[in-house]
Amino acid sequence: MKLAFCGNDNPAAYNISAGVLRNVCFVDALNLVPHVFLLFITFPILFIGWGSQSSKVQIHHNTWLHFPGHNLRWILTFTLLFVHVCEIAEGIVSDAQMKSRHLHLFLPAIIGFVAATTSIVYYHNIETSNFPKLLLALFLYWVMAFVAKTIKLVRYCQEGVTFSQLRFCITGIMVILYGLLMAVEINVIRVRRYVFSMNPQKVKPPEDLQDLGVRFLQPFVNLLSKATYWWMNTLIISAHKKPIDLKAIGKLPIAMRALTNYVCLKEAYEEQKKKVANQPNRNPSIWLAMYRAFGRPILLSSTFRYLADLLGFAGPLCISGIVQGFQNTSQDNTTTIEKDQSDSYLSSQDFLGNAYVLAVLLFLALILQRTFLQASYYVTTETGINLRGALLAMIYNKILRLSTSNLSMGEMTLGQINNLVAIETNQLMWFLFLCPNLWAMPVQIIMGVILLYNLLGESALVGAAVIVLLAPIQYFIATKLAEAQKSTLDYSTERLKKTNEILKGIKLLKLYAWEHIFCTSVEETRMKEFTSLKTFALYTSLSIFMNAAIPMAAVLATFVTYAYTTDKKLQPAQAFASLSLFHILVTPLFLLSTVVRFAVKAIISVQKLNEFLLSDEIGGDSWRDGCSSVAYESCKKHTGFHPKAINRKQPLRYQLESYEQSSRRQPRSLEIDDIAIKVSNGYFSWGSGLATLSNINIRIPTGQMTMIVGQVGCGKSSLLLAILGEMQTLEGKVHWSNRNRYSVAYAAQKPWLLNATVEENITCGSPFNKQRYKTVTDACSLQPDIDLLPFGDQTEIGERGINLSGGQRQRICVARALYQNTNIVFLDDPFSALDIHLSDHLMQEGILKFLQEDKRTLVLVTHKLQYLPHADWIIAMKDGMVLREGTLKDIQNKDVELYEHWKTLMNRQDQELEKDMEADQTSLERKTLRRAMYPRESKAQLEDEDEEEEEEEDEDDNMSTVMRLRTKMPWKTCWRYLTSGGFFLLFLMIFSKLLKHSVIVAIDYWLARWTSLDEKHKEDETYYVARFSLLCGAGIVLCLITSLTVEWMGLTAAKNLHHNLLNKIILGPIRFFDMTPLGLILNRFSADTNIIDQHIPPTLESLTRSTLLCLSAIGIISYATPWFLVALVPLGIAFYFIQKYFRVASKDLQELDDSTQLPLLCHFSETAEGLTTIRAFRHEARFKQRMLELTDTNNIAYLFLSAANRWLEVRTDYLGACIVLTAAVASIKEGPKSGFVGLGLLYALTITNYLNWVVRNLADLEVQMGAVKKVNSFLNMESENYDGTLDASQIPKDWPQEGEIKIEDLCVRYENNLKPVLKHVKAYIKPGQKVGICGRTGSGKSSLSLAFFRMVDIFDGRIVIDGIDISKLPLHTLRSRLSIILQDPVLFSGSIRFNLDPECKCTDDRLWEALEIAQLKNLVKSLPGGLDAMVTEGGENFSVGQRQLFCLARAFVRKSSILIMDEATASIDMATENILQKVVMTAFADRTVVTIAHRVSQILDASIVLVFSDGVLAECDTASNLLLKEDGLFTTLVKTHK
After folding, report:
1. Closest by CA position to 383, among listed 428, 448, 317
2. How crowded is residue 1292: how many other Cβ atoms within 10 Å of its Cβ?
3. Cα R_g (the chain), whole angstroms
4. DSSP assignments along 149-217, one per residue
5. How many Å apart are CA 64 and CA 253, to the nearest integer?
6. Sign of the CA dihedral 234, 239, 242, 248?
7. Dihedral of CA 1214/1220/1224/1230: which sign?
8. Which residues sit opposite 611 in a β-bridge?
9. CA distances from 295 to 119, 288, 386, 1202 (A)
């Protein structure tokens, strides 16, 4: 056929006798001109012009100066493109009805489509290079196109073409669009004045884009990039090269920062407050405030949601149209009528009857629907994040103003505040995410039911009724799920507590061979937890089952009703359109239960928030509101008293005299400089209305030391807090001299540390001054402690850091107060946790020297009366009142009784000092710290091992291997997980899954066959209905079975993994616990176990379900139209790359989100704990700033994570739409039976829903498998060898009876790759001897005690006890027959009876006897319950000395003939130590006792002394003999320790 523009079958086509413009063909040709003009002008500029231009413009993102009307232009252009597509289609369909090709029907439209696309590309380039003059070309194009189309429209009107003809409508719409685009262009000229004007407008890009740190570009990119998240590509692809870190995601744009949103919400909330101000019983509404601040984006999101839902119904309608079209063509194969050209106008009816047109429309509808849906999700996510940021800032600001009494009186516990932050804000955020569903769902359901009714009549209502009636059951299951989760949580908390105790006391458990008793106790709790996990799993599987079964039940009810109530045969078009509608209906109904649950939770959360926001605030003292902050410098030096050198050794009289002289010298008239703080007639309360402090009249002199003394609980600390304004002032006034306010350094009684480095804790926001810092750390004796830390003063301490002892924490807090450059320092009992050496040093160096030199006013609360002579002013308190105030001399003269009372107390304290001098508490604390630090080096090593894959990688750490590991799914771990549930269950799961999906496919296949029946086979209907019902029933049953098997398998796997982990850890060698930080092991039992218990099974279920659905869909489509397989290849490749890139990026972003959440929560809880300190220091602003930074960091991570999810979903949705298009086109081409076409299309539509779930679940599973991998890494650890070579029968029942020990050439090491710690030790200990072992730190003393219990590797030599070589004994037997008392007393939570005898072997008399020997009988008798009295965790309700005595009683209960004491007296006072020594000598007189001495003085009366040096036995003899050697090691040790 020859081609011709106007067709060659009509000679009149080229006739212009009636005028040029009356010729159709010529008008169409005229329409080509503008398009060709645009292409000619723009192409050279697009390809050539940019290079020279863009270099002038320095914007770091290649964006984004949006011209006025930017978004409108994009929307109009997209509409124009859509209309062009319709025009092309209309032209082609019309052309198909002609005898020959008529190019003028569709060619101008095609060129127009190209020109419109070019126009938007051209516009985008001009915009990004900010060169508006070039927009003139576009302006000319719009004008020409508008004119050409108008001519065409006018001509149609003249010919009498009406609205019923499609071509007329299309032309009309185009005229309007070109007109609007022209208007947009004129507006740009008007605003930017780039032509016809001398001074064009200069514009700068938005502030965010000038900041290089902002990487989140969603608000700034153009519409297309916004809709497809195109700007995310660089980030997601770069994740392959290097992991995404916080630097890569940058800062939040200003509009999304917590501060911006806080201001919005705060204003709205204040407005609500004003409204209800004069109505006492009404609370301001947070809901209205939230709507005020965030209502607009929610409305926008809801609009998107409505559009998406309405477009969703295009699917079923198009399917019905296509299938219907097939039926019609197969029924009337009438020949197509040749039409002549004059009648070539199509009506819309004919146009939509074309199957290809429907296929393209379906494709476009899907693309649009998915774009709107993702846009709706994105907007709600962004708003939710903004809301959360605003709420967190609001809560934080409130915390900083909370009245202290609220916190201390328990109205607002720390737990409640943490819940507000961690739970309630997230509940509200999630509610906001699901919010648009609330009003979109009813519309969707109503529309769906109306369409169904149209298709099937009354029987559709039956199906709808089934769905609606089953919905409440969904809600019921959802509530039950929440309950089950709560009870599981309670049990797992208890289990963790027990596990924690085991890990803390693991050394003792191993030495006493009690591991199994404690292990059983954990297993019991785990079984309880497991029972509630079973309930949880049951409800989860029921929920999944309901989801899958409801649509089946509805379809069954509908079609069976239809078959028996109507005479008409069910048509394929009806059947498949209604199936598709049922699928659409189920989603909102399933979501409804979730949304309702979240709405209920959100309402409760808002109530809690309101209560919190309306709770009492701290009193607004006059100085709190003062704005005139005094510069620190002016506070530093001020006139006060002359510096006095105060020496502890000076007589008291002299000091008092010098004080009186100096005070006489200063005239009293300058009252303001004299008195720093004055309280007059003060009554203060803790919020109860009852005065805690009453009638307070005190003054605190400037530049001097004021001491506040009194008994415990007399209100000393309260007085400090009252002065700081933390208490409620009932009456009276606190007057500060004006230069002192704004600068108070305060060290609270309970030390409060930040989660930061030691240095940051001390400087606490002040500028760092090296000299000052050194002086302060020396004064507080912190240097030795800092030296022990792995990174010196850059080591993290606090909750998340290293745990320091009480004394170390207190000294850091005092150092913080001293370091601050403030006029006034308040120290609240700084000596309470310090021993005498440190207290003296601190007093001398820190207080008398450092503070007095700086002339700072000091208020010191203390119990140590020996420091009274140093005080310039003393305030004595009693029962919340001031007893006396004045100098020591005044008190001595005026109140002799009090002075004498103090004197007796001081004498008593002095006697205690003598004792104290011996027990050096500090060195002990340092020792503990060193022990805590020892595992640190190995921690890093262990984490590295954790990271490595199972396959050992080559040393060359080249990027490609690392990246390969990052992109690889951990299949090996998955297989381990699946098999740990048992092979039978695994087989059952796979089999039932496959069977279920086969049945589901069979149902739809049967439906296709049933509906494709001819009218003649009407009598077979009953047979088809019966088979259909059977298949549906089987499908419903199988749904239940599969969901149960997956959960059951997951539970079994979780049970086995936890059981193996616990047993492996408990039987591990002691070295493992020294090397591995406790937190790391606990994490396996907490977070990782939780993931394995609750998260992996549902993910696995969802993953298998969506994968099998997608596979069965592809199978069905390929069966219906084999050509589809060809198109599948490129789609498959695209899908593979999308999921590969997404998984890596998603994992990184998930980790960032998790890791940025913890610091935020910690910051909130640490602020609430240290409120008084923060307020005293006036550091609220700094802490607020920190909170805003942490919130923004967490929010940006979460925002990027949700943007990455949108990125994935848009791409998989578009792929799904392509699959639908190819399936539709392929089936139209083949034109087989209409039933199977419907089936193919129905399945193609479901793919779009499930493709992104496959990838999301894969990514989730990959992250969750990390937990299994970590648990597995512990399962590969070697256990101790518990079996011995001797049988139980060969060991005497009462071994060891004598207690004779032979050590023969003993060599010991901790691990076979480490150096020996004991070398060739030979010794003989007679039965009943008392042996002392001593030596310097690290000489191998303790290693010997561990060797008796085979806790270390004896690689040469042997130890023989009572004739049996201990290496031949089973470990359990050996350890259960010896006794040991360790240096750190360990008690477990439980009864006293359980602590002494967990195996329950002994009688009560034996236990009482043991307690009597340990001198604890009276103490235990006085406790409620006696032997059954409870011991709290770690034995916190007993003193250290008492705990050590309990350990002695425990050793005695065991009645072993050998007792080993490993530095047992190191952590107790002298008195207890004397008791211990006496007991050992009497109660253990006939037993062999080996004492490892921490002080040599303990073993001077031992019958034999072994002295170790560097792992070698250096000396061995009686103490008296060893002392005769002048230069012996023992003599040296005795001299240095005395």
Report:
1. 428
2. 11
3. 42
4. HHHHHHHHHHHT--TTBHHHHHHHHHHHHHHHHHHHHHHHHHHH--SS-SSPPP----HHHHSTTB---
5. 15
6. positive
7. positive
8. none
9. 36, 9, 12, 21
> 10 Å Cβ neighbour count for 433?
19
Residue 197 has φ and ψ, to the nearest 5°, of -150, 145
Q: Is 1078 exposed, middle or buried (0-12, 13-18, 19+ CB in 10 A)?
A: middle
Which residues lie below 8 Å from residue 550, measured CB to CB, with a gap of 6+?
466, 467, 470, 586, 589, 590
pLDDT means per 10 residues, the chain with 1538 residues, are 69 69 81 91 74 44 70 93 92 82 86 93 82 85 94 86 84 94 90 75 76 84 90 89 87 92 94 86 89 92 93 89 78 48 67 87 93 94 94 92 68 74 88 86 88 88 84 82 84 86 86 87 91 90 84 87 84 86 80 80 89 80 37 32 34 36 33 76 82 88 89 84 86 79 80 86 89 90 82 75 72 90 88 76 87 86 85 89 88 85 76 53 62 45 39 43 65 88 90 92 87 70 87 92 90 92 88 78 86 88 90 87 86 91 91 88 86 88 93 94 93 92 85 73 85 86 88 85 78 81 87 83 87 81 84 86 86 86 82 86 85 81 82 74 81 83 69 72 81 76 84 84 82 73
Is residue 698 within a helix (H) or strand (E), and if so which, with residue range?
A: strand 691-701
Could you tell me which residues are beta bridge partners of residue 347? 165
1070 Rama class: left (phi>0) / alpha (psi -120 to 50) / beta: alpha
The token duo for 90 is 């209309």
Rounded Cα–Cα distance for residues 548 and 1215 (Å) = 25
Which class for 1401: exposed (0-12), middle (13-18), buried (19 or more C-beta within 10 A)?
exposed
| Cβ–Cβ under 8 Å, residues 1116 and 1239 | yes
Residue 110 one-letter amino acid:
I
1356: left (phi over 0), alpha (psi -120 to 50) or beta: beta
Count of alpha carbons within 13 Å of 536, Cβ hemisphere only?
Answer: 22
Tokens of 1143: 């998984």
Amino acid code (one letter) for 567: D
Q: What Å distances lie between residue 409 and 40, 402, 689, 728, CA to CA? A: 81, 12, 13, 13
The H or E element that residue 1354 is part of is strand 1353-1361
CA distance 63 to 230: 13
Give the closest residue to 354 by CA, choosing from 322, 396, 328, 395.
Answer: 322
Give the position of tokens 């507000």.
420
Both structure tokens of 1370: 């089973």
Which DSSP symbol is given to 1095?
I
Do the beta carbons of residue 1164 and residue 1187 sit within 8 Å?
A: yes
